[in-house]
Structure formats: structure tokens, C-alpha cells
From TrEMBL:
<dbReference type="GO" id="GO:0017150">
    <property type="term" value="F:tRNA dihydrouridine synthase activity"/>
</dbReference>
<keyword id="KW-0288">FMN</keyword>
<comment type="similarity">
    <text>Belongs to the Dus family. Dus1 subfamily.</text>
</comment>
<feature type="domain" description="DUS-like FMN-binding">
    <location>
        <begin position="51"/>
        <end position="276"/>
    </location>
</feature>
<keyword id="KW-0520">NAD</keyword>
<keyword id="KW-0285">Flavoprotein</keyword>
<dbReference type="InterPro" id="IPR035587">
    <property type="entry name" value="DUS-like_FMN-bd"/>
</dbReference>
<protein>
    <recommendedName>
        <fullName>tRNA-dihydrouridine(16/17) synthase [NAD(P)(+)]</fullName>
        <ecNumber>1.3.1.88</ecNumber>
    </recommendedName>
</protein>
<keyword id="KW-0521">NADP</keyword>
<keyword id="KW-0560">Oxidoreductase</keyword>
<dbReference type="InterPro" id="IPR013785">
    <property type="entry name" value="Aldolase_TIM"/>
</dbReference>
<keyword id="KW-0819">tRNA processing</keyword>
<dbReference type="GO" id="GO:0050660">
    <property type="term" value="F:flavin adenine dinucleotide binding"/>
</dbReference>
<dbReference type="Pfam" id="PF01207">
    <property type="entry name" value="Dus"/>
</dbReference>
<dbReference type="InterPro" id="IPR018517">
    <property type="entry name" value="tRNA_hU_synthase_CS"/>
</dbReference>
Length: 422
């Protein structure tokens, strides 16, 4: 169900953009669309686990893979509003979806309100989106040249006009994804302005525009908590969601209504899979916790599922290349000829499937060798060999097939995983 959100009254950006000193300030005035914003949020299931927008990486097959493993909402990749509104080929290539791909937020970047509105209306009229999201967070050089993303933080009246033009002219909600300023009061005032302009949801990436390396920079959950306390519409937290343990820690610390994850999902598309990831160590707000990556053998299974989704829902293969590298990178370090083929040859589904099949074949050879040479007479391990498949330690890297000492033999206990997809 899509709930229409009434346009808010006009509020000048200058009137809202005033320094404030309180960290947990209550909303200045509850915006008139707040109740409708919450009704809409509940109508899409009050999703907590969001696939963040990633250029050429949060495409349909990857969104579906993440949904299969616990994600409850997803963003499209950032789409360029002017090109989207003017180029049918760009629209058909960059925005693909299906009935299982809901709820879905379609994200645009834009400098001119008229281009943003034209693109948003095309999406609204197609009926494929639950909301239109505006990107105010991209920190890359191309965004600076185009005058969009995080570089609109230097032009707050334009930010306000972009949000307001959608809020006043669309039947579906408008949402916004922002970054923070160095000054907390300035960040809170910025978020309030976006809300007052008509945003029905605000996602806060807790890093500065200058902080582009997410792996080395701790996201500021205090800033997200302050924004959540100040706004009346749903707020999502983005930043430092390294594993499932961080999800609970972030929601508890910030009070946010959900979290987004980007780079961590690329390493582990099953990050939000609560049953499968329940044993992952609980995160901490100090930033000392380590990043989590799914075990190499499990990533092979995820890669197989992803390729099946690519076959069912074709997308530009440049997008597929990046996911293949992320999911089977450990094995490509062993099969350097396959790695070179991926980097040199024109991308095809056949090529990527060849990588997965070749790697799986190598894994089974290693496991068979180890099983036969070390464990064939073990009454416990022998129960795990069935149907031509051999279970293997989930955290073991691919070893050369030999009867030489193997990492498997030195484990005090074995975490066994059947590679059913091989």
C-alpha cells in the first residue's frame, strides 16, 4: 500500500538553519506530514534492515540476494535524474525490478529541481517504487563536478528546494540520505530543514563529506542519535554496520528506526540473516571491533545464488564483475588464471559461471584428498560425506590438493558446511 503524504507548508531554509547547542533537542515543531510519514513507514513493514544505495552495486540481483538473506528494504543505485528523465536506454538499463523487490526506494541525484521532478514522476507513474530518495551524501569527485550529492551541503536552499518540489508534487513519499557536518548543532539543523521541507524519512550517514574511506573512519553514532532525537519522522542510521552484532548495538545506541549497510553487505550479502549470523560477535561503539566477512566457502554458495539471480534478471555485466571479485576473491588468489580472465576478457555470464564452477571443483578435490588421506576412518566425519559432496571447514582457504599437512587437520574442532551449489 502506498500512502500519499500531504505537502508541508513553506519554511525558509534561513529560518531553520540556526546553530543549536543541545545534543538531544526535541523537535521544534512537529511537521504536519509526520503522522502520514509514520503511517507510510508502517505500511511497508517498518523495515529495519536496508540495502544501502551503491553505484553499480545495489542492482536488482544483488538486492534480491540480500532480501533472500534477511534484508527487509533496499535502495536502487544512485541514478542521475537529468539523464534518467531524458534517456530511455539509461532508464531501461539502470532501473530494473520485479514483484519480489519491495519495498524499494529509488534514489536520484540532482542539481536542478525540474530534472529531479521529471525523473521522479516517471518512477511514480511506473508504480515500481515505495518512495523517491534524494542523494545528499555522495562525496565523490563526480558529485562535486555535477553539483549534487554531499556537495549540496554548501547550498542548503537548493537542498530545501529539491526536497520540497517532490513533496509538493508527488503522490508517493520523498526521503533523503544525508551526511553530517563537523558541528553537531549544524547537523541537527540540517536534518530538521530536510524534514520540514517534506522528507518522510531521513537516513543519516554518520561521516563527514571528507571522510570517504569508510573502513578507516569511525561513523559518528552520537550525531545520528542527536538527529533521531530532533526529528519526528523515521530516521535510519548508516555507518559502521560491520556485522549483525553492530545492527543491534547501533539501534540501541542511536534509537534509529533501521540501519543501512553498504560495503559490509558486499563482503557478506547474508549480513542481515539473523539465524545464520546470530553467533557473530556483538559490535561495540568504540570502533575497535573487527570487520566481518563471510567464510570463503559460504561466499561460494552466495556467489552461486547470485549468478542464478543474474540469469533470471539480467543486468549490465560490469555490475556482476565487482560482486564476483568480492564473493570469490579468496579463491581467485589461488586460481590466478581465472582472476586474469575476469580482468581481461569481456564480461559474460558464462565467464563468471566458469569461475564459480572451477573454484567449486578445486574445493571438492581438496576436500576429497584431505578426507581420504586423513579422515576416512573417522566415525564422526564419515557421516558428513554423502551424495558425492564432502563437507569442509568453513574458514579454510583453498589449499593445493596434496597429502601434505592441511589447515583442516590442525583444527581442534571442525565447522562443517556442505557446498550444495557446487
Amino acid at each position: 500500500m502506498t500512502v500519499a503524504v500531504p505537502p508541508p507548508p513553506a519554511v525558509p531554509a534561513s529560518a531553520l538553519y540556526e546553530p543549536r547547542t543541545t545534543m538531544d533537542a526535541a523537535p521544534l515543531q512537529r511537521p504536519p506530514h509526520a503522522d502520514m510519514a509514520w503511517e507510510w513507514f508502517r505500511s511497508i513493514g517498518s523495515p529495519k534492515f536496508h540495502v544501502a544505495p551503491m553505484v553499480d552495486q545495489s542492482e536488482l540481483p544483488f538486492r534480491l540476494l540480500c532480501r533472500r538473506h534477511g534484508a527487509t528494504c533496499a535502495y536502487t543505485p544512485m541514478l542521475h535524474a537529468r539523464i534518467f528523465s531524458q534517456d530511455r536506454k539509461y532508464r531501461e538499463e539502470m532501473l530494473t525490478t520485479c514483484s519480489e523487490d519491495r519495498p524499494l526506494l529509488v534514489q536520484f541525484c540532482a542539481h536542478e529541481p525540474q530534472h529531479l521532478l521529471a525523473a521522479a514522476r516517471l518512477v511514480q507513474d511506473s508504480g515500481v517504487a515505495d518512495a523517491i530518495d534524494i542523494n545528499f551524501g555522495c562525496p565523490q569527485r563526480i558529485a562535486k563536478r555535477g553539483g549534487y550529492g554531499a556537495f549540496l551541503m554548501d547550498d542548503l536552499p537548493r537542498v530545501e528546494s529539491l526536497v520540497r518540489v517532490l513533496a509538493q508534487n508527488l503522490r508517493i513519499p520523498v526521503t533523503a540520505k544525508i551526511r553530517i557536518f563537523p558541528d553537531l548543532a549544524k547537523t541537527v539543523a540540517y536534518a530538521r530543514m530536510v524534514e520540514a521541507a517534506g522528507a518522510s524519512l531521513v537516513a543519516v550517514h554518520g561521516r563527514l563529506r571528507e571522510q570517504k574511506d569508510n573502513s578507516s573512519t569511525r561513523a559518528d553514532w552520537d550525531a545520528i542519535r542527536a538527529v533521531k532525537a530532533a526529528l519526528s519522522v523515521p530516521v535510519l542510521a548508516n555507518g559502521n554496520i560491520r556485522h549483525l552484532g553492530d545492527v543491534g548495538a547501533c539501534l540501541s545506541y542511536t534509537g534509529a528506526d533501521g540501519v543501512l549497510s553498504a560495503e559490509s553487505l558486499l563482503a557478506d550479502p547474508a549480513l542481515f540473516d539473523v539465524p545464520a549470523r546470530a553467533s557473530v560477535a556483538v559490535g561495540d561503539v568504540s570502533g575497535r571491533g573487527r570487520w566481518y566477512s563471510a567464510p570463503p566457502l559460504e561466499r561460494l554458495s552466495l556467489a552461486a545464488q547470485y549468478m542464478d539471480l543474474v540469469r533470471a534478471h539480467p543486468v549490465p555485466l560490469r555490475m556482476v564483475r565487482g560482486h564476483v571479485h568480492k564473493m570469490v576473491g579468496d579463491w581467485l588468489a589461488e586460481h590466478t588464471d581465472l582472476r586474469d580472465n575476469i580482468n581481461r576478457l569481456p564480461p559474460t555470464i558464462q565467464l563468471f559461471c566458469q569461475v564459480r564452477v572451477r573454484v567449486c571443483g578445486g574445493v571438492k578435490e581438496v576436500c576429497v584428498c584431505v578426507y581420504v588421506s586423513r579422515f576416512a576412518n573417522d566415525p564422526v566425519l564419515s557421516r558428513h560425506a554423502c551424495g558425492g559432496h564432502i563437507h569442509c571447514v568453513t574458514h579454510c582457504r583453498l589449499a593445493r590438493c596434496s597429502v601434505a599437512p592441511c589447515p583442516l587437520t590442525s583444527c581442534s574442532f571442525l565447522l562443517l558446511l556442505l557446498i550444495e551449489q557446487c
